[in-house]
Amino acid sequence: MLRNSLTINMDVFEKQYNSYRVVSCIIGLWPYQKTIYTVIKRIFISIILLVNLVFQIMSLLNSEITLRSCVLTLSTTIPFLLFFLRYVNFIEFSSNLKYFIGHMRMEETLLQDLVEVQILTKYVDNGRTCSTGVLTFTAYLLGPIILDLIVPLNEPRTRLIKYLTEFSHDKTVYLDIVALNFVFIIIVGLLCITCTESFLTIFAYYLSGLFKITRYE
Predict the structure, then answer these.
(1) Count of CB atoms within 10 A of residue 106's CB?
(2) Predicted confidence band at 48 (pLDDT cuts at 50, 70, 90)?
(3) 171: left (phi over 0), alpha (psi -120 to 50) or beta
(4) Per-domain residue ranges for the chain?
(5) Which residue in 35, 19, 45 sits closest to 198, CA to CA?
(6) Which of 23, 114, 178, 211 has the most crowded Cβ, counting Cβ within 10 A?
(7) Listed residue (174, 118, 180) closest to 146, CA to CA
């Protein structure tokens, strides 16, 4: 019975660990990747995040500064700044990250309590809810663009991006470019936050398992 419980627990842990590894590889934060492709990916993502920060600030300075414009700009600038800082911070932290992951791989067989399975299930459910929210928001941003391509009207459909940024232009194509860029930054940024904070969750999970084993002993 104990052997079956241990097998189930390790299967759940490995699945969660592999999900983290895949996300880390996508955005270039997996510490075991040392290729030139990973370096280029890190530079590209860092530049994209930084350029969007500058774009948001410049759009505020070039428009009439009002309470509404400040609130709109800060509501997007602060998350972009958070994405950028967390991403750069974890690149600098990658050597320590590799050290922690190595220890977790050696000690993972100590996690034998089935309570951890319930904890992992909870985080999976939370991640699914977050993913649903992101997909819904993306659909609202890209919906008008896709519908204009499939079922065009005499007048272009209203773009939600007009209400989320101070960027203003009469041509719809520019709004579409901003919307696509906005979606890209949100997806990359959320992947960065998911990756960085997931590691803290996994590491806390690992420590909890060790504390429980110490208490039982």
Answers:
(1) 9
(2) confident
(3) beta
(4) 1-216
(5) 19
(6) 178
(7) 180
Residues 130-164: pLDDT tens digits?
556 655 665 665 666 566 556 665 655 555 555 45
Location of structure tokens 């084993």: 213
74-124 residue pLDDT tens: 777 887 888 888 888 888 887 777 777 776 666 555 555 555 545 545 554
| Torsion angle of C-alpha atoms 188, 193, 195, 199, degrees rounded to 10 | 170
At 17, which amino acid appears? Y
Among residues 183, 202, 204, 206, the alpha carbon closest in space to that of 194 is found at: 202
How far CA 84 is from CA of 8, 81, 105, 168, in Å, comes to 37, 5, 29, 25
DSSP annotation string for 141-167: HHHHHHHHHHS--SSPPPPGGGGTSS-
Residue burial 47-67, b: 16+ Cβ < 10 Å; e: rest: ebbeebbebbeebbeeeeeee
d(CA 188, CA 159): 22
